Amino acid sequence: MMVSVVIPCYGQARFLAGCIASVQAQTYPHWEAIIVNDGSPDDTKSVAEGLAAQDSRVRYIELPHSGQPSARNTGLRAARGRWIQFLDADDLLEPMKFELQVTRLSTCRQLAFCYCDYWRGEAANPHVRVPGAHPSLEFKLARPVLDMALRWEWDFSIPIHAPLFDRAFFHDLGIHFDETLPNNEDWDVWMQMLRHSPQILYEPAELAIYRQSPASVSRNRDLMWRGFSAAIRKQRMIWADDPEVVKSLELTQRLVDYHYYRTWRSRLRRRLDRSGAYRRNCPWPIQKFFLRLTDRPALPPTC
User: Fold this and answer.
1) Which of 69, 122, 40 is nearest to 16 (CA)?
2) Which of 8, 23, 188, 217 could form a disulfide with 71 if both were Cys (CB 3.0 to 4.6 A apart)?
3) pLDDT per residue as tens digits for the range 209-242
4) For the sheet containing 112-121, what is the strand order?
5) Which of 150, 44, 142, 30 minimizes the C-alpha distance to 88?
6) Are 97 and 158 within one domain?
7) Which of 33, 37, 35 is nearest to 25 (CA)?
8) pLDDT band at 301 (very low <50, low <70, confident <90, very high)
């Protein structure tokens, strides 16, 4: 059974050969790689065409620039494999990824995905680990959708290249990346998937490498707030018949507002944290009061 690897590329031609090499190094031989050039201004076209000419398993598609969600959707429409692997052009896979995950998924008789652990690498050399732990990958709550609705970004995250997905999610159920969202379209896809109660399989090996890039859309706080808020509004409508999920999403919106400085509490907290004079001169009981007053909304104890 073949794995289809969907690789959107915009301005990342310098990473593309290494990305494809990590796919070619897979111990599981049945795969195709679909490079989708999202109107990239660099030499993505020549690099990708060269890679495709050298390996018939590598395919190349070219689009006008329309964003990563559109590029991923284009790759999905072209995919012929039983399993779907998303892989950004600057990230890498370890050689055993497909073999271990396909083995797990092949024993499953229902709609499923299998995800693995990962590690973060330096921008210049992703094989050099960035110090520090990454957010939890463990589903902890009674329903997986509650983990996704409530814990995402705060203490729970699964990179998009960590899972291997059943193609039925996309080709039979019509799940796709929302091209109207400026970001957080991957979270939106997770929420769409979990509505179908799939079986969730976990492979604990570190099989995906995430390149820690210094230039990221996540640094644009206003854009991130708008994207996440739009995705939450959409999911609140989709899950309107499920009060538990809706309540979780409402709390997440409050957390998002706080995190991206859309509330007076978080703006005051940031100002106080940055004030050396306040920390030096204000009595500790008063500082303690303001810490409580400006703290972020609390997650439920089960989180």
Assistant:
1) 40
2) 8
3) 999 876 554 568 889 999 999 999 999 999 999 9
4) 58-63, 31-38, 3-9, 83-86, 163-166, 112-121, 199-211, 92-93
5) 44
6) yes
7) 33
8) low
